[in-house]
Write a structure and sequence with these properties.
Order of helices and strands: HHHEEEHEHHEEEEEHHEEEHEEHEHEH
CATH architecture of the largest domain: 3-Layer(aba) Sandwich
Shape: elongated
Strand order of the largest sheet: 1-2-4-3-5-16-6-15
Radius of gyration: 23 Å
Number of helices: 12
Strand content: 15-25%
């Protein structure tokens, strides 16, 4: 179906919103200006606005008719600690911070849907518009839930979307079951006996032990996890030593693992501990292991069957069946919307941002959300509300 004309008429305004947010990115739990901008827009549309859940979160309520059915729609607000390399006029004005994941576009599309629905009210029930802080590794969704999100706003089901490079521009991708992997990080501190580099026999070399451990941890996926499962273990940081001629007392290894089942998640964590302590015995060093030491791990983003069907029907109504990928390969990336899906049935889908050429990759300093898809995302949100809450 063609995009409704009144949504098309919002396109220029949504572009302005999106580019404003892109110019003034704010990172996890510091989205005060972003939240103020969004809250002011929602209030102007006539919605009841609540601020402060999850520190900087914004939730707006819109009701029509007499149904007691309730739906929640979520957009993430935060930016990343990335120095933008784009040169266009709306590039980031905040040093070292950038909307390199398209959350600026997510907010603009949901604002557009709120504006349209407030004006037309072609639905019967209640819609909660959730603008969430701190998606990028700080679990803002979990914080909002702990602050009483679904007690204050008792949605029956919850929906989210994310723009996605290499999905054709304006197409959707969705499937029932896992869409995004779980995320866990770990820190291993190996401690040995420091000594002169010329006399290694007098100490216990934590660096050599760490080198062996890095290799050994790679056997978890190849020799412990079921080959039919998708999973990955990656060491991402190594910190040791301060000089050329001494073996340091300790080495710090940090890394992450991701998978698509609770059983694999537990197996990987258990095996990291088992292999680490076993190897340490052979090298006469000790190990301290911490899982998710700074931030909570993320669960699997799992779409429930009925809600996936609802989302699919809405997406088909907007772009047609030929523009829907029904069997996307689940992403090893993670998403804290998964916490909301643990609380409520729901669905999370991808909206194509087009080719990933010229640095148009998520978390890339040259990334930019494609303004062309703003009306498509807004039309999807509107159609989803009208599908789930028919007037």
């Amino acid at each position: 179906m063609p995009i409704p004309s009144d949504i098309q008429q919002l396109h220029d305004e949504m572009r302005q919103w999106r580019r404003h947010l892109h110019q003034f990115p704010e990172t996890a739990f510091e989205e005060t200006g972003t939240a103020r901008f969004i809250a002011n827009k929602l209030s102007g549309f006539g919605l009841d606005v609540h601020e402060g859940l999850g520190r900087t979160g914004v939730v707006a309520t819109l009701s029509a008719g007499n149904s007691d059915k309730k739906i929640a729609l979520r957009a993430d607000m935060d930016a990343l600690f990335i120095q933008e390399r784009n040169t266009f006029e709306h590039k980031s004005r905040h040093e070292g911070k950038m909307h390199a994941c398209g959350h600026d576009g997510h907010c603009a599309m949901l604002l557009g849907a709120a504006s349209h629905l407030a004006h037309n009210r072609n639905f019967n029930g209640t819609v909660y518009f959730i603008f969430q802080p701190a998606e990028e590794g700080r679990a803002g969704a979990k914080q909002m839930i702990q602050d009483g999100l679904f007690e204050k706003f008792p949605a029956d089901r919850v929906f989210g979307l994310h723009n996605f490079p290499d999905v054709p521009l304006g197409h959707f991708a969705v499937k029932q079951g896992p869409m995004m992997a779980s995320f866990d990080c770990f820190e291993i501190v190996l401690t040995g006996q420091a000594t002169h580099a010329a006399m290694p026999h007098l100490g216990s070399d934590a660096i050599v032990a760490a080198a062996q451990l890095i290799t050994v941890l790679q056997t978890i996926i190849s020799r412990t996890v079921d080959p039919a499962e998708q999973a990955v273990v990656s060491i991402t940081q190594i910190h040791a030593g301060q000089t050329w001629n001494a073996l340091p007392e300790s080495v710090v290894l940090r890394g992450t693992f991701r998978c698509f089942s609770d059983s694999a998640q537990k197996t990987i964590a258990d095996k990291i501990s088992q292999l680490t302590h076993a190897l340490c015995q052979g090298f006469n060093v000790t190990a301290e292991i911490k899982f998710n030491p700074e931030n909570p791990g993320y669960p699997i983003t799992f779409n429930t069957e009925e809600e996936t069907r609802m989302a699919l029907n809405a997406a088909i109504a907007v772009v047609g069946e030929d523009c829907i990928d029904l069997q996307p390969t689940p992403s090893m990336g993670s998403e804290d919307f998964a916490f909301m899906l643990q609380e409520k049935p729901g669905c999370y889908l991808w909206l194509g941002n087009g080719p990933a050429e010229n640095g148009c990759l998520l978390h890339n300093p040259h990334y930019d959300f494609k303004d062309e898809i703003l009306p498509i995302g807004t039309a999807y949100w509107v159609k989803l509300v009208e599908t789930v809450l028919p007037g």
